[in-house]
TrEMBL record:
This is Transpeptidase family protein. Its main location: membrane. The chain crosses the membrane at residues 7-27. PANTHER family: PEPTIDOGLYCAN D,D-TRANSPEPTIDASE, PEPTIDOGLYCAN D,D-TRANSPEPTIDASE FTSI. It comes from the Bacteria. The keyword Membrane applies.
Length: 699
């Protein structure tokens, strides 16, 4: 066989092999398209069509007056099916639509959007996302009127994909109390603790995978989501704002590490304010709930002396507030350690009442040794009786467990009793300490604090939370009378004299506890003030903690108590029920009548009647009067204002004088400083001249 025939043979064999494979491919295509066509179409459809969850709208969180504290707002991403619109509508509107998109988003040119949409239409793509930026509902309404888009989803092809975002109308206010929940279902605060109620139940809908994404298919099989329930809290927005501002100022002033404030209604246990601020590089923010959580569980210091004195009076009711204790020179040896008082050289011999008012560590320690020295278990039993050994079952997750030592513990030492009595070697969260003070204010009934009062679906209440009693009676009425008197004495005469108010009475206790670092007590402090007001008829209880303040004055009275005072003043000012009537608050001295010279008859009569001052109007026709003081009453005589005549304004306040002279078209020149008119340049009753100018002198 020559070379030519060999080459031809090889070519023919190769050709036949290629033809064979080509025929095999054609055959396989025919099998796939014709024989197995339905099978592969079904598989393709199954993989292209899928169910996707439709997320439920999360419920709202409300304050006590129905103000929204957290809500879900709808935002949208704009997608587009450019194949939907007919040619006439598309060609007529594409230029205007591209221009509007470019101007609205401001990121790409008009030509970019035109080419993007046209290329997708020519390629038959049924889904493109025009921009990843989310728009609000008002923007959505505006876009729905744009060219092409105005045809809607079915005729224009516009797709508004709904995305819900959590929004807090009051910004950072009560941020940690409101809390959060992330995609992994982890979180904090109300959002996390009540997630099962707020989240609702997701639905599902059918979606089709297409080039560039997916689009929903509404075929009637979709399951509608069940939207979440709303929760109504007990938080008072105004008091919350005051609490956070007062706390922030105190922390910033003292460069403290963190602080917390809790305010609660005495009778109901409703939390009206809960502020938590921690120090960061950028300032103070709500990054942890120190009021409830483990990081806020500390040795309470002297605020715990309330529990110790309650235990003392229960165990030894014969102890009176007037009994005396010798606290010595301010230094007292207990086993192998020394206990000291804040005052250099000590307080000497003082009463039980003064021990508490002055917060004498030595006085409390001696009382504990005398009465519980031989029965230390009894002291711990009383703490358990007060409910201090148990958590409160608070509605927010993450409540810290209280820590109380027992004589059976290996760490119980010879100084443990006296150390616990003044607030060391025990640990409580601020809310747990406040619950005890609230019990004293509530006539001995310890109740569970609550922060959520209702779970609702629209206007229908699904679940409500009522006051739950934890301890029916923490102590006897006799003990209550004693400790309430001591708490009032702290503010009247003791360590918290600086927050004494002329308008209402306060009962409370300061605290200053040394911090532990690396197993040793250091000269850093956790300062506090806990109490309630008005002391004679308690409405609110409150605790303030300022941790690790810097500076010279780092005691509870200097740092924490003023925050309490600012919040209490605000609460008192806006709560008319707490106000005593003027008649009850002011007892006039009938032998010394107030200095009043002239004024409006209505105003003067009203004031005198409110203050219980006898007054006798000599006329009821004149608006303005002069005052003639008698021995025990005030007589009001007419001071007429006549047209064209200079009025008599001597004795009137500047405001009243300006009002009268202005109505007479007189130009007034004011001299001097004071509240009342002493002299006037024009004689009263004279005719007003053309100059129409008068000078009045104040005194």
């Amino acid at each position: 066989m020559n070379i030519k025939k060999s080459i031809v043979l090889r070519v023919r064999v190769a050709f036949l092999v290629i033809c064979f494979f080509a025929c095999a491919i054609v055959y396989k295509i025919c099998v796939i398209q014709i024989t197995d066509g339905e099978k592969w179409k079904a598989i393709s459809k199954e993989r292209r069509i899928y169910y996707r969850p439709v997320f439920a709208t999360r419920g709202n969180i409300y304050s006590d007056n129905e103000s929204i504290m957290a809500t879900s707002l709808p935002f949208y991403r704009v997608a587009f099916d450019p194949t939907i619109a007919d040619a006439q509508a598309f060609n007529a509107g594409i230029d205007s639509l591209s221009m509007l998109l470019s101007r609205f988003y401001g990121d790409k040119s008009e030509d970019y959007y035109r080419r993007k949409i046209k290329n997708a239409r020519h390629a038959g793509r049924q889904y493109i996302r025009l921009n990843s930026r989310q728009i609000n509902y008002q923007d959505k309404k505006m876009m729905a009127k744009w060219p092409v888009f105005r045809g809607g989803k079915n005729k224009g092809g516009v797709i508004f994909e709904k995305v819900e975002k959590r929004f807090k109308p009051f910004g950072m206010l009560a941020e940690r109390t409101i809390g959060f929940i992330n995609e992994d279902k982890n979180g904090a605060g109300l959002e996390y603790s009540f997630n099962n109620n707020l989240a609702g139940t997701d639905g599902e809908a059918l979606f089709e995978r297409i080039a560039g994404g997916s689009k929903p298919i509404y075929d009637g099989t979709e399951v509608k989501p069940q939207h979440g329930y709303d929760i109504k809290t007990t938080i008072d927005i105004n008091l919350q704002d005051v609490a956070e501002n007062a706390l922030y100022k105190a922390l910033e002033k003292t460069d403290a590490d963190y602080g917390t404030v809790i305010m609660m209604e005495v009778k109901t246990g409703e939390i009206k304010a809960m502020a938590n601020l921690g120090k960061t590089k950028g300032g103070y923010i709500e990054d942890y709930n120190y009021a409830v959580g483990a990081q806020g569980r500390t040795e309470p210091g002297s605020t715990f002396k309330l529990a110790s004195m309650m235990a003392l009076f229960e165990y030894a009711p014969e102890v009176n507030l007037t009994d005396t204790i010798d606290t010595g020179d301010g230094r007292y040896r207990i086993k192998d350690t020394y206990m000291t008082d804040a005052k250099i050289n000590g307080y000497g011999k003082i009463t039980v009442q003064q021990v508490f008012e002055k917060s004498s560590n030595i006085g409390v320690a001696k009382l504990m040794e005398t009465h519980f020295g031989s029965n230390q278990q009894a002291y711990v039993d009383y703490l358990d009786k007060f409910g201090l050994g148990n958590t409160l079952g608070f509605q927010l997750d993450g409540e810290a467990r209280p820590f109380i030592k027992h004589p059976q513990d290996r760490t119980w030492y010879g100084t443990t009793l006296t150390s616990m009595a003044i607030g060391y070697e025990t640990k409580f969260s601020p809310l747990q300490i406040l619950a005890l003070y609230n019990a004293v204010a509530n006539n001995g009934t310890k109740i569970q604090p609550i922060i959520v009062k209702e779970i609702r679906k629209a206007d229908k209440v699904v679940q409500s939370f009522k006051t739950r009693v934890l301890v029916e009676k923490v102590c006897s009425d006799a003990t209550l009378k004693k400790v309430r008197g001591m708490l009032e004495g702290v503010v009247e005469n003791g360590t918290a004299r600086n927050i004494k108010s002329a308008d209402y009475t306060v009962a409370g206790k300061t605290g200053t506890a040394r911090k532990v670092k690396e197993g040793k007590y250091v000269r850093e402090y956790s300062t506090s003030f806990a109490g309630y007001f008005p002391a004679d008829n308690p409405k609110y209880s409150c605790i303030v903690i300022i941790d690790s303040p810097k500076g010279v004055n780092v005691y509870g009275s200097d740092v924490a108590a003023p925050v309490f005072k600012e919040l209490a003043d605000k609460a008192y000012a806006r709560d008319l029920e707490m106000h005593k009537s003027l008649r009850e608050r002011v007892t006039p001295n009938k032998e010394s009548l107030p200095l009043v010279k002239a004024g409006s008859l209505d105003d003067l009569s009203t004031i005198c009647n409110r203050l219980g001052i006898s007054n006798h109007p000599k006329t009821t026709d004149e608006e303005w009067v002069k005052v003639q003081p008698g021995r025990r009453s005030l007589d009001f005589v007419p001071n007429p204002v006549l047209d064209g005549k200079v009025p008599d304004v001597v004795g009137l306040t500047l405001r009243d004088a300006l009002f009268i002279l202005g109505n007479q078209n007189l130009k007034v020149n004011v001299q001097g400083v004071g509240k009342h008119v002493q002299k006037q340049s024009l004689e009263a009753g004279s005719t007003i001249s053309k100059i129409k100018q008068i000078t009045i002198v104040l005194s």
